[in-house]
Amino acid sequence: MPADGPVDACRWALAGVTALADAAPMLRRIGSQRGTHAPREFSDGRSGQVVYLSHCLLNQNTRYPGGAVCSGVVVDAVAPYLADGAGIVQMACPEQHTWGGVSKRHLLRLLDHPVAARAGRRLLGPARSYLRWRYQRLARAVARDIADCTASGLEVVGVVGVAGSPSCGVTSTLDLDAALRAVAACSHRTVTAGWLDQHVVEPSIRPGRGLFIDALQAELAKRHLDVPVNEFQLHGSDAAC
Ligand code: SF4
């Protein structure tokens, strides 16, 4: 019923607020029941299992120059989950989002100019802090998504990163300082497929966690989410594509 004047409008607004207050206990009860539904209650074809993969395991086109080992999907990384019937979620590529898009133009600038690579070493501390901040936001979004899956009764069977990556490594990562030192030391070079791997990436791989995986594990721990986190070995492997 439309309000005839300011007094009626106030009366209607008051009635609305009162109705909401009356419904609050019921809404709270419904809210507290979220997350108690097992997927089998849906009685459809879903397996109830989900895995989160690093972006480039499903799309090698986001790899740095010289870093793609397959034309598109890394079939070996995906096959076990396909066989199990798990749903596959592709996480955002942290380097695409922070290093200048798919072409990672900020990285290319360092590769093209040894002077920039030398300067880059001095800026490594602030750059690392900046990356941590940006990666934390991406990690938070993934952790929220995983929390939603588990609260909805799904089993998140794992997160899979990429061995040796400064961002997505789980047990091995890239020593950025060593990598920049290697880039700065080479004044005459052509960046070709394989050059970067051979002269910069492979000699700079160290045990440790990439910055994005580190942020993601912290976000998962904050939410008490116990999800296995593993890595796929792309470098030096005969991964089937
Ligand atoms: S390892 Fe991570 S950061 Fe590197 S290309 Fe793959 S998804 Fe992107």
Give a verbal description of the structure:
By secondary structure, the chain is α/β, with parallel strands linked by helices. The chain has two domains: 1-34; 47-232, no CATH class. The protein has ten helices and six strands; from the N terminus they run αβααβααααββααβαβ. Strands 2-1-3-6 form a four-stranded parallel sheet, with helices on both faces. The longest helix is centred in the middle third of the chain and has 28 residues, at 124-151. The N and C termini lie far apart (65 Å). The relative contact order is 0.16. The chain binds iron/sulfur cluster. Iron/sulfur cluster binds at residues 54-56, 62-63, 93-95, 162, 165, 167-168.
Explain briefly what this protein structure is:
The chain is of the alpha/beta class and 241 residues long.
Walk me through the topology.
Layout: H1 6-32, E1 49-53, H2 55-58, H3 75-84, E2 87-90, H4 94-98, H5 105-112, H6 114-122, H7 124-151, E3 155-162, E4 172-174, H8 176-185, H9 195-201, E5 205-207, H10 211-222, E6 229-232
Parallel strand pairs: 1-2, 1-3, 3-6
Antiparallel strand pairs: 4-5
Helix pairs in contact: 5-6, 6-8, 7-10
